[in-house]
Amino acid sequence: xxxxxxxVGWYAFExxxxxxxxxxxxxxxxxxxxxxxxxxxxxxxxxxxxxxEDIKAVWSNEYCEVDVTDKNDGxxxxxxxxxxxxxxxxxxxxAEWCAxxxxxGIKSGMAFMPALNQxxxxxxxxxxxxxxxxxxxxxxxxxxxxxxxxxKNTLLKMIFAKLKKILVLFGLRKKNVSRPFxxxxxxxxxxxxxxxxxxxxxxYKEKVRAVIAF
Length: 214
Fold this sequence. Notes:
- The chain is an alpha+beta fold.
- Helix content is 27%, strand content 25%.
- It contains five helices and eight strands.
- The protein has helices spanning 74-88, 93-100, 116-123, 126-135, 154-169; strands spanning 11-13, 17-19, 28-35, 47-58, 144-151, 186-191, 197-201, 205-213.
- Strands 2-1-3-4-8 form a five-stranded antiparallel β-sheet, with helices on both faces. A three-stranded antiparallel β-sheet has the order 5-6-7.
- The longest helix is centred in the last third of the chain and has 16 residues, at 154-169.
- The two termini are 14 Å apart.
């Protein structure tokens, strides 16, 4: 099927095939969840395929700050998260599950945790996506989901830095407010039905979805 004919809600298969029929080709990899309106987009930027499965996992198992504030490039964010984890012996269950996903021709390293705006774009079509997922027994988009975009809480740091100074004046130790506010970061996540985005502590266990780009 020619790629310029693809629609959101179609199925993606191993070998770069697409069809509105779930069993049109072997090894269904997922559902087309977003298409780039730019018809001349390069390979890897033409659209996103949503993996049918999801899991619940924490964003990270330790309080740490990773520079992944990009809202549009989930693949780059995921690679940065993994690199930080390897260098600092920190586990990132959500990103690690996405990056190691391998099934139906999807090789480890192909899938990634979508960035905030990538999730938002997909949520515009959650009804079409859910209809397609239901035909293949996939996990529906119906709950909060982690993005790979880390919330930049510079303002929070400033507030609590001032708070610590005030506490010191009253003889309180700095460590009373050193955690989790100065060392932990908030991670962005969005609610599927309407695309609302909020920030949540990375230690919370929430839904994770993996995507691949084509």
